[in-house]
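Box 3.1 A note on notation
Throughout this textbook, protein chains are presented in two layers. The first layer is the amino acid sequence; the second is a token string describing backbone geometry. Keep the layers aligned when reading.
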Amino acid sequence: MAKTKLKDFIKEQERTKEYIEDIKDLVEERSLGMADTKAAMTIVEGVTTKTEYGYYGAVEGVTRKDTGCGMEPTPFDVPVRTGWWNPVSLRATISECYSTLENSFLQWARVKGIKKLHIEDTDFVNFLAERFGNAIQADFNKFAFFGNTQASNVGSGSGSENLKTGVAKENYNAIDGLYTQFLKMVTTDTSKRVTIAENAQTTFAAQKALARDTAFNAFTALLDAADPLTFAQGAQPIFLATHSMVTNLSRYLRSEYKNELTLTKMEGGYEAAEFEGVPIVTHRWFDEIIRRDFSNGTKWDNPHRVILLDKSECQLGIDSDSSLKDIEIEYIGGKDEHVYLKAAYSMDFQRVIGTTGAMAI
């Protein structure tokens, strides 16, 4: 580096402290404050184990014909559902050989168009924030959408055996995320479950071969199956779908009705459209994660998914005020030189109503 050698910069712990806040702000902005998950769920900040969530339902039927003096009062029963957040403490610790880190940094600088002689300390801060931030964001989103506390590998004989052999269950078993909680609901209440026949096929090729009207039928059936509360005053109904289903729907509408389903790019790579007045939110990342990590080697675990949900009741709780405050950069010298990056935050996912919406799977 022009002003300070990379190793010296890391080793001088007192000196690096002034940069910790810069890294923290960059990482926090990319992973929590600007979390991509906000496209599909409501982010609640400042959540702790002592934080209560609640839902208070609408009341009707309190008005009666006036019968004069002595008229009996009508019971005023407000439907209430409350619960307590249960955020899980998570820690990210990255260890990397110093020489590997240095080579990665120099390659990053070249890609950014930064000449070696002009590398500054602040460039290293940005490098760490980008690498560390992207890693945390990927983990954060996997927990939020695919988290399953019972996650286990195919053939392990325990838990929910849907992870591909070799995939670490710790990448998913922190909390029960959105897909897991909706699957539990439609397993209990099958009236809110719409079956996608291709998911049950026994080969990758057969699963990929969607019938031309599969998505259209699924989206329509979800509207018919959903609880009316999904569309109540104050609700924010959306379709959350794998990209495979949105593509299938778009092609069907174009060929059958000459109606183009226009997808608009959103922040974080999400795409949005609308079906019968309800927004559709999708991302190719959903398909990528399912096909990469959820299979038994010959078929994927439900590669095509659509959820009709009320975004306002699907809440992701984070303790953003304290998240990532203890970011550390540590250099360990000696025979085996390593650099450590450490951070911590907490999160939880809750459905504050728990009965709205429907799922096609």
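The longest strand covers residues 338-351. The CA atoms of residues 28 and 298 lie 38 Å apart.
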